[in-house]
UniProtKB/TrEMBL annotation:
This is DUF4374 domain-containing protein. It comes from Flavobacterium procerum. The keyword Signal applies. Keywords: Signal. Residues 1-25 form the signal peptide.
Amino acid sequence: MKKNTFKLFTSGLLLGALVLTTACSSDDNNNSETVNPVTDGRWITVAGALMQTDPGDGNGGTKVYAISKENAIDPNFSVDVYTNGAAVQSNRTARLQSSVDGNTLFNITYTGANGGEFMTYKVTGGNKFAESQNKSNISQYAGTSPRWVKLFDGDKTGIAVNVTAPVVNTNEDKTFKYTRGTATVLSLDLQQAVATAFKQYEIPLTPEEEAQGYHIFRLDAPTLNKAGNKLIIGTWMRKTDPATGQNASSFTRLGSKSVVVDYPSLENPKVITSTVGFGDTSGYRSFNSFVATDGNVYQATQRDTQNGSYILKINQSNEYDNSYVFSLDTALGIKGSYIDAWRYVGNGIAYAVYTYEGTEQGFLARLDLNTRTATKVEGIAYDADLNFGQYQGFVVDGNNFYIAVTPVGKDGNIYVIDIPTGAVTKGAKLINKPGNHYIGVF
Protein backbone atom coordinates (compact mmCIF):
# COMPACT_ATOMS: atom_id res chain seq x y z
CA MET A 1 0.00 0.00 0.00
CA LYS A 2 2.74 2.40 0.99
CA LYS A 3 5.06 1.43 -1.83
CA ASN A 4 2.38 1.80 -4.45
CA THR A 5 2.03 5.45 -3.49
CA PHE A 6 5.39 6.20 -5.04
CA LYS A 7 7.14 3.09 -5.72
CA LEU A 8 8.79 1.01 16.66
CA PHE A 9 16.83 -14.07 38.26
CA THR A 10 15.79 -16.70 35.42
CA SER A 11 15.77 -14.03 32.86
CA GLY A 12 19.23 -12.89 33.92
CA LEU A 13 20.63 -16.43 33.74
CA LEU A 14 19.29 -17.03 30.24
CA LEU A 15 20.51 -13.69 28.96
CA GLY A 16 23.87 -14.28 30.54
CA ALA A 17 24.08 -17.67 28.80
CA LEU A 18 23.39 -16.00 25.47
CA VAL A 19 26.13 -13.45 26.01
CA LEU A 20 28.58 -16.18 27.06
CA THR A 21 27.75 -18.31 24.00
CA THR A 22 28.11 -15.46 21.50
CA ALA A 23 31.31 -14.21 23.11
CA CYS A 24 33.03 -17.43 22.10
CA SER A 25 32.26 -16.75 18.44
CA SER A 26 34.26 -13.53 18.22
CA ASP A 27 37.72 -12.57 19.37
CA ASP A 28 37.23 -8.99 18.22
CA ASN A 29 34.41 -7.98 20.58
CA ASN A 30 34.33 -7.71 24.32
CA ASN A 31 30.92 -8.81 25.57
CA SER A 32 31.76 -8.01 29.20
CA GLU A 33 30.47 -4.49 28.62
CA THR A 34 26.72 -3.96 28.30
CA VAL A 35 25.83 -1.74 25.35
CA ASN A 36 22.48 -0.56 26.76
CA PRO A 37 20.77 -0.57 30.16
CA VAL A 38 19.09 -3.82 31.19
CA THR A 39 15.59 -3.81 32.68
CA ASP A 40 15.10 -6.81 34.95
CA GLY A 41 11.73 -8.45 34.44
CA ARG A 42 10.98 -6.42 31.32
CA TRP A 43 7.89 -7.46 29.38
CA ILE A 44 8.14 -8.03 25.63
CA THR A 45 4.80 -7.07 24.08
CA VAL A 46 4.11 -8.72 20.74
CA ALA A 47 1.80 -6.87 18.33
CA GLY A 48 -0.10 -8.31 15.38
CA ALA A 49 -2.07 -6.54 12.66
CA LEU A 50 -5.30 -8.06 11.36
CA MET A 51 -6.25 -8.19 7.71
CA GLN A 52 -9.19 -6.04 6.70
CA THR A 53 -9.71 -6.62 2.96
CA ASP A 54 -6.47 -7.87 1.45
CA PRO A 55 -3.83 -10.15 2.97
CA GLY A 56 -1.19 -8.07 4.71
CA ASP A 57 -3.10 -4.77 4.60
CA GLY A 58 -3.10 -4.69 8.42
CA ASN A 59 -6.14 -2.41 8.50
CA GLY A 60 -8.40 -4.69 10.55
CA GLY A 61 -7.05 -3.58 13.92
CA THR A 62 -4.19 -4.53 16.25
CA LYS A 63 -3.90 -7.09 19.04
CA VAL A 64 -1.16 -7.37 21.67
CA TYR A 65 0.15 -10.00 24.08
CA ALA A 66 2.97 -9.61 26.64
CA ILE A 67 5.56 -12.26 27.47
CA SER A 68 8.70 -12.36 29.59
CA LYS A 69 12.20 -12.01 28.15
CA GLU A 70 12.97 -15.64 28.99
CA ASN A 71 9.89 -16.72 27.03
CA ALA A 72 10.77 -14.41 24.14
CA ILE A 73 14.16 -16.08 23.71
CA ASP A 74 12.79 -19.64 24.10
CA PRO A 75 12.10 -21.39 20.74
CA ASN A 76 9.85 -23.89 22.54
CA PHE A 77 7.47 -21.15 23.68
CA SER A 78 4.57 -20.13 21.41
CA VAL A 79 2.53 -16.94 21.16
CA ASP A 80 -0.83 -16.63 19.38
CA VAL A 81 -1.69 -12.95 19.62
CA TYR A 82 -4.75 -13.30 17.37
CA THR A 83 -6.43 -15.94 19.52
CA ASN A 84 -5.24 -14.88 22.95
CA GLY A 85 -4.27 -11.22 22.64
CA ALA A 86 -6.05 -8.02 23.65
CA ALA A 87 -7.23 -5.42 21.14
CA VAL A 88 -5.90 -1.90 21.43
CA GLN A 89 -8.00 1.06 20.39
CA SER A 90 -7.53 1.90 16.73
CA ASN A 91 -9.81 2.05 13.72
CA ARG A 92 -6.94 0.72 11.59
CA THR A 93 -3.42 -0.38 12.49
CA ALA A 94 -2.50 1.03 15.91
CA ARG A 95 0.62 3.16 16.04
CA LEU A 96 2.14 2.01 19.31
CA GLN A 97 5.10 3.13 21.40
CA SER A 98 6.42 1.52 24.56
CA SER A 99 8.13 2.82 27.65
CA VAL A 100 11.83 2.08 28.07
CA ASP A 101 11.09 -0.49 30.78
CA GLY A 102 8.36 -2.16 28.70
CA ASN A 103 5.72 -1.68 31.40
CA THR A 104 3.59 0.84 29.49
CA LEU A 105 2.22 1.07 25.97
CA PHE A 106 1.38 4.47 24.51
CA ASN A 107 -1.21 4.77 21.75
CA ILE A 108 -2.83 7.51 19.69
CA THR A 109 -5.89 6.20 17.87
CA TYR A 110 -5.49 6.41 14.12
CA THR A 111 -8.64 7.58 12.22
CA GLY A 112 -12.25 6.82 13.09
CA ALA A 113 -14.60 8.30 15.67
CA ASN A 114 -11.86 8.30 18.34
CA GLY A 115 -9.06 9.36 15.98
CA GLY A 116 -6.46 11.46 17.76
CA GLU A 117 -7.22 10.10 21.24
CA PHE A 118 -4.16 9.37 23.38
CA MET A 119 -4.22 6.66 26.02
CA THR A 120 -1.82 4.36 27.82
CA TYR A 121 -1.97 0.67 28.69
CA LYS A 122 -0.32 -0.83 31.75
CA VAL A 123 1.44 -4.05 30.76
CA THR A 124 1.02 -6.83 33.33
CA GLY A 125 1.60 -9.95 31.26
CA GLY A 126 -0.44 -12.06 28.86
CA ASN A 127 -3.52 -10.28 27.53
CA LYS A 128 -3.96 -8.14 30.62
CA PHE A 129 -3.50 -4.51 29.59
CA ALA A 130 -5.08 -1.95 31.89
CA GLU A 131 -6.26 1.01 29.82
CA SER A 132 -5.77 4.41 31.46
CA GLN A 133 -8.74 6.50 32.43
CA ASN A 134 -6.71 9.64 31.87
CA LYS A 135 -6.93 10.35 28.13
CA SER A 136 -6.47 13.28 25.82
CA ASN A 137 -7.80 13.90 22.30
CA ILE A 138 -5.51 16.02 20.12
CA SER A 139 -7.61 15.84 16.95
CA GLN A 140 -8.64 19.50 17.23
CA TYR A 141 -4.98 20.41 16.76
CA ALA A 142 -3.42 17.59 14.73
CA GLY A 143 -6.41 15.90 13.07
CA THR A 144 -7.76 12.40 13.53
CA SER A 145 -4.75 10.75 11.84
CA PRO A 146 -1.68 12.32 13.47
CA ARG A 147 1.76 10.85 12.95
CA TRP A 148 3.65 10.63 16.20
CA VAL A 149 6.59 9.17 18.10
CA LYS A 150 7.86 9.48 21.63
CA LEU A 151 11.14 11.24 22.23
CA PHE A 152 14.11 9.48 23.80
CA ASP A 153 13.81 11.67 26.90
CA GLY A 154 12.93 9.12 29.54
CA ASP A 155 9.33 8.58 28.39
CA LYS A 156 8.37 12.17 29.16
CA THR A 157 7.25 13.51 25.80
CA GLY A 158 5.52 12.50 22.59
CA ILE A 159 5.51 14.65 19.46
CA ALA A 160 2.59 14.52 17.01
CA VAL A 161 2.77 16.13 13.59
CA ASN A 162 0.37 16.66 10.73
CA VAL A 163 0.00 18.56 7.46
CA THR A 164 -3.43 19.47 6.13
CA ALA A 165 -4.19 18.51 2.54
CA PRO A 166 -1.91 20.74 0.43
CA VAL A 167 -3.80 23.45 -1.49
CA VAL A 168 -2.86 24.92 -4.86
CA ASN A 169 -2.47 28.71 -4.74
CA THR A 170 -2.63 30.82 -7.88
CA ASN A 171 -1.61 34.32 -8.96
CA GLU A 172 -4.15 37.01 -9.87
CA ASP A 173 -4.02 35.85 -13.49
CA LYS A 174 -4.86 32.29 -12.33
CA THR A 175 -1.40 30.94 -13.12
CA PHE A 176 0.18 28.52 -10.66
CA LYS A 177 1.92 30.09 -7.66
CA TYR A 178 2.66 27.31 -5.12
CA THR A 179 1.17 24.38 -3.21
CA ARG A 180 1.17 24.33 0.59
CA GLY A 181 -0.59 22.73 3.53
CA THR A 182 -0.71 23.92 7.13
CA ALA A 183 1.63 22.01 9.41
CA THR A 184 0.97 21.23 13.06
CA VAL A 185 3.64 20.26 15.59
CA LEU A 186 2.34 19.28 19.04
CA SER A 187 4.09 18.12 22.21
CA LEU A 188 2.33 15.75 24.57
CA ASP A 189 3.13 15.01 28.19
CA LEU A 190 3.06 11.21 28.20
CA GLN A 191 2.72 10.95 31.97
CA GLN A 192 -0.10 13.47 32.43
CA ALA A 193 -1.78 12.78 29.05
CA VAL A 194 -2.04 16.44 28.19
CA ALA A 195 -0.86 18.57 25.27
CA THR A 196 1.79 20.98 26.50
CA ALA A 197 2.36 23.08 23.36
CA PHE A 198 1.41 23.23 19.70
CA LYS A 199 2.26 25.42 16.75
CA GLN A 200 0.72 25.70 13.31
CA TYR A 201 2.34 27.26 10.26
CA GLU A 202 2.91 26.92 6.57
CA ILE A 203 6.39 25.69 5.74
CA PRO A 204 7.54 27.14 2.41
CA LEU A 205 10.32 25.74 0.29
CA THR A 206 12.55 28.01 -1.79
CA PRO A 207 10.70 30.18 -4.35
CA GLU A 208 12.34 28.22 -7.16
CA GLU A 209 11.24 24.87 -5.73
CA GLU A 210 7.69 26.07 -5.07
CA ALA A 211 7.36 27.53 -8.57
CA GLN A 212 8.00 24.04 -9.90
CA GLY A 213 5.23 22.63 -7.70
CA TYR A 214 7.30 20.93 -4.98
CA HIS A 215 5.70 20.84 -1.53
CA ILE A 216 5.71 18.99 1.80
CA PHE A 217 2.95 16.39 1.71
CA ARG A 218 3.56 14.83 5.13
CA LEU A 219 5.66 15.26 8.28
CA ASP A 220 6.66 12.36 10.48
CA ALA A 221 9.27 10.80 12.79
CA PRO A 222 10.40 13.78 14.94
CA THR A 223 13.70 13.34 16.78
CA LEU A 224 15.19 15.43 19.58
CA ASN A 225 18.82 16.37 18.99
CA LYS A 226 21.57 15.72 21.52
CA ALA A 227 21.49 19.29 22.87
CA GLY A 228 17.76 18.95 23.51
CA ASN A 229 16.98 22.28 21.85
CA LYS A 230 15.87 21.25 18.34
CA LEU A 231 13.46 18.76 16.81
CA ILE A 232 14.41 17.19 13.48
CA ILE A 233 11.20 16.27 11.60
CA GLY A 234 11.17 14.08 8.52
CA THR A 235 9.31 15.01 5.34
CA TRP A 236 7.45 13.24 2.55
CA MET A 237 7.65 15.31 -0.62
CA ARG A 238 5.26 15.61 -3.55
CA LYS A 239 4.99 17.79 -6.63
CA THR A 240 2.10 19.57 -8.33
CA ASP A 241 2.13 19.85 -12.11
CA PRO A 242 2.00 23.66 -12.54
CA ALA A 243 0.28 23.30 -15.92
CA THR A 244 -2.64 21.26 -14.60
CA GLY A 245 -2.72 21.87 -10.86
CA GLN A 246 -2.85 18.10 -10.36
CA ASN A 247 -0.55 15.88 -8.36
CA ALA A 248 2.39 14.66 -10.47
CA SER A 249 2.62 10.86 -10.50
CA SER A 250 6.38 10.96 -11.13
CA PHE A 251 8.95 13.70 -10.85
CA THR A 252 12.63 14.48 -10.45
CA ARG A 253 13.35 14.33 -6.75
CA LEU A 254 14.91 17.15 -4.77
CA GLY A 255 17.57 16.49 -2.16
CA SER A 256 16.20 14.89 1.01
CA LYS A 257 14.67 17.44 3.37
CA SER A 258 13.90 17.77 7.07
CA VAL A 259 12.21 20.50 9.09
CA VAL A 260 14.08 21.79 12.15
CA VAL A 261 12.10 23.58 14.88
CA ASP A 262 13.10 25.03 18.23
CA TYR A 263 12.37 22.85 21.25
CA PRO A 264 10.40 23.04 23.48
CA SER A 265 8.78 26.15 21.91
CA LEU A 266 8.18 24.39 18.53
CA GLU A 267 8.80 27.72 16.81
CA ASN A 268 10.96 28.88 13.90
CA PRO A 269 10.59 26.06 11.37
CA LYS A 270 13.57 25.79 9.04
CA VAL A 271 13.98 23.43 6.08
CA ILE A 272 17.37 21.75 5.66
CA THR A 273 18.33 19.86 2.49
CA SER A 274 20.74 17.02 1.82
CA THR A 275 22.77 16.88 -1.37
CA VAL A 276 23.56 13.19 -0.74
CA GLY A 277 20.13 11.58 -0.45
CA PHE A 278 17.07 12.22 -2.59
CA GLY A 279 14.44 10.11 -0.85
CA ASP A 280 11.84 11.11 1.72
CA THR A 281 12.82 11.15 5.39
CA SER A 282 9.40 10.52 6.97
CA GLY A 283 9.67 6.75 7.40
CA TYR A 284 6.42 4.88 7.89
CA ARG A 285 4.80 4.26 11.29
CA SER A 286 8.11 3.97 13.10
CA PHE A 287 11.16 5.93 14.23
CA ASN A 288 13.22 7.03 11.24
CA SER A 289 16.12 8.92 12.81
CA PHE A 290 18.20 8.48 15.95
CA VAL A 291 20.83 10.31 17.98
CA ALA A 292 23.82 7.97 17.87
CA THR A 293 26.59 7.48 20.40
CA ASP A 294 28.67 10.15 18.63
CA GLY A 295 25.95 12.77 19.25
CA ASN A 296 24.91 13.15 15.62
CA VAL A 297 21.49 12.32 14.16
CA TYR A 298 21.32 9.51 11.59
CA GLN A 299 18.28 9.33 9.34
CA ALA A 300 17.01 6.85 6.74
CA THR A 301 15.48 7.74 3.37
CA GLN A 302 12.63 6.11 1.46
CA ARG A 303 10.84 6.24 -1.92
CA ASP A 304 13.86 6.97 -4.09
CA THR A 305 13.47 4.16 -6.61
CA GLN A 306 16.45 5.33 -8.65
CA ASN A 307 19.08 5.55 -5.92
CA GLY A 308 17.64 3.40 -3.14
CA SER A 309 17.75 4.17 0.58
CA TYR A 310 20.53 6.14 2.23
CA ILE A 311 21.49 6.73 5.84
CA LEU A 312 22.03 10.49 6.16
CA LYS A 313 23.95 12.30 8.89
CA ILE A 314 22.75 15.50 10.56
CA ASN A 315 25.50 17.09 12.64
CA GLN A 316 25.24 18.82 16.00
CA SER A 317 24.77 22.15 14.23
CA ASN A 318 21.51 20.66 12.92
CA GLU A 319 22.64 20.65 9.29
CA TYR A 320 23.16 17.76 6.90
CA ASP A 321 26.75 16.56 6.76
CA ASN A 322 27.10 16.03 3.01
CA SER A 323 30.55 14.50 3.41
CA TYR A 324 28.88 11.43 4.96
CA VAL A 325 27.75 9.05 2.21
CA PHE A 326 26.11 5.75 3.18
CA SER A 327 24.17 4.10 0.35
CA LEU A 328 22.40 0.87 1.25
CA ASP A 329 22.51 -0.16 -2.41
CA THR A 330 26.28 0.14 -2.43
CA ALA A 331 26.77 -1.45 0.97
CA LEU A 332 24.65 -4.52 0.17
CA GLY A 333 25.38 -4.77 -3.55
CA ILE A 334 21.73 -4.42 -4.54
CA LYS A 335 19.59 -1.93 -6.45
CA GLY A 336 16.52 0.02 -5.37
CA SER A 337 16.85 -0.70 -1.64
CA TYR A 338 14.01 0.49 0.56
CA ILE A 339 14.28 0.74 4.35
CA ASP A 340 10.85 -0.04 5.82
CA ALA A 341 11.96 0.52 9.42
CA TRP A 342 15.19 0.56 11.39
CA ARG A 343 16.61 0.92 14.88
CA TYR A 344 19.86 2.23 16.29
CA VAL A 345 21.12 -0.22 18.93
CA GLY A 346 24.31 1.44 20.21
CA ASN A 347 28.04 1.71 19.52
CA GLY A 348 27.46 2.79 15.92
CA ILE A 349 25.41 -0.30 15.07
CA ALA A 350 21.85 -0.36 13.70
CA TYR A 351 19.46 -2.91 12.21
CA ALA A 352 17.18 -2.23 9.24
CA VAL A 353 14.38 -4.20 7.63
CA TYR A 354 14.36 -3.60 3.89
CA THR A 355 13.40 -4.77 0.44
CA TYR A 356 14.86 -3.98 -2.97
CA GLU A 357 14.07 -3.74 -6.66
CA GLY A 358 12.50 -6.83 -8.17
CA THR A 359 11.05 -8.28 -4.98
CA GLU A 360 8.50 -7.45 -2.29
CA GLN A 361 10.20 -9.81 0.15
CA GLY A 362 11.65 -8.34 3.31
CA PHE A 363 15.15 -8.83 4.70
CA LEU A 364 17.13 -7.72 7.77
CA ALA A 365 20.52 -5.99 7.60
CA ARG A 366 23.09 -5.07 10.23
CA LEU A 367 24.45 -1.56 9.62
CA ASP A 368 27.72 -0.09 10.87
CA LEU A 369 27.28 3.69 10.81
CA ASN A 370 30.97 4.30 11.48
CA THR A 371 32.35 2.25 8.59
CA ARG A 372 29.26 2.80 6.40
CA THR A 373 28.96 -0.91 5.73
CA ALA A 374 26.04 -3.31 5.88
CA THR A 375 25.52 -7.06 5.81
CA LYS A 376 22.37 -9.10 5.36
CA VAL A 377 21.61 -10.96 8.58
CA GLU A 378 21.79 -14.72 8.17
CA GLY A 379 20.08 -17.14 10.53
CA ILE A 380 16.64 -15.61 9.82
CA ALA A 381 13.97 -17.83 8.20
CA TYR A 382 13.37 -15.69 5.11
CA ASP A 383 10.26 -16.33 3.03
CA ALA A 384 8.79 -14.92 -0.17
CA ASP A 385 5.75 -13.68 1.82
CA LEU A 386 7.84 -11.86 4.43
CA ASN A 387 6.91 -8.18 4.20
CA PHE A 388 8.01 -5.50 6.69
CA GLY A 389 6.03 -2.68 5.06
CA GLN A 390 4.04 -1.95 8.22
CA TYR A 391 6.68 -2.95 10.75
CA GLN A 392 6.81 -0.73 13.83
CA GLY A 393 8.50 -2.08 16.93
CA PHE A 394 11.92 -3.35 17.97
CA VAL A 395 13.13 -3.88 21.53
CA VAL A 396 16.66 -3.02 22.66
CA ASP A 397 17.58 -4.28 26.13
CA GLY A 398 21.17 -4.65 27.29
CA ASN A 399 23.12 -6.45 24.56
CA ASN A 400 19.95 -7.89 23.01
CA PHE A 401 18.00 -6.71 19.99
CA TYR A 402 14.53 -8.28 19.58
CA ILE A 403 12.58 -8.47 16.32
CA ALA A 404 9.39 -10.28 15.25
CA VAL A 405 9.62 -12.02 11.86
CA THR A 406 6.48 -13.52 10.30
CA PRO A 407 5.52 -13.85 6.64
CA VAL A 408 1.96 -12.76 5.89
CA GLY A 409 -0.40 -15.57 6.95
CA LYS A 410 2.42 -17.87 8.10
CA ASP A 411 3.97 -18.68 11.45
CA GLY A 412 7.30 -17.10 12.33
CA ASN A 413 9.49 -16.33 15.32
CA ILE A 414 10.95 -13.70 17.55
CA TYR A 415 14.69 -13.43 16.89
CA VAL A 416 17.16 -12.14 19.47
CA ILE A 417 20.44 -10.74 18.17
CA ASP A 418 23.52 -10.10 20.29
CA ILE A 419 24.48 -6.50 19.53
CA PRO A 420 28.28 -6.72 19.97
CA THR A 421 28.75 -9.85 17.84
CA GLY A 422 25.67 -10.03 15.64
CA ALA A 423 24.99 -13.64 16.71
CA VAL A 424 21.37 -14.65 16.00
CA THR A 425 19.16 -16.77 18.27
CA LYS A 426 15.73 -18.02 17.17
CA GLY A 427 13.24 -17.33 19.94
CA ALA A 428 9.54 -17.84 20.59
CA LYS A 429 7.28 -19.13 17.84
CA LEU A 430 4.65 -16.66 16.61
CA ILE A 431 1.40 -18.33 15.55
CA ASN A 432 -0.25 -16.55 12.63
CA LYS A 433 -3.65 -16.47 10.94
CA PRO A 434 -4.46 -16.17 7.21
CA GLY A 435 -3.87 -12.64 5.95
CA ASN A 436 -2.36 -11.37 9.20
CA HIS A 437 1.19 -10.45 10.17
CA TYR A 438 3.12 -9.44 13.27
CA ILE A 439 4.23 -5.80 13.20
CA GLY A 440 6.59 -5.57 16.12
CA VAL A 441 7.72 -6.15 19.67
CA PHE A 442 7.52 -3.39 22.25
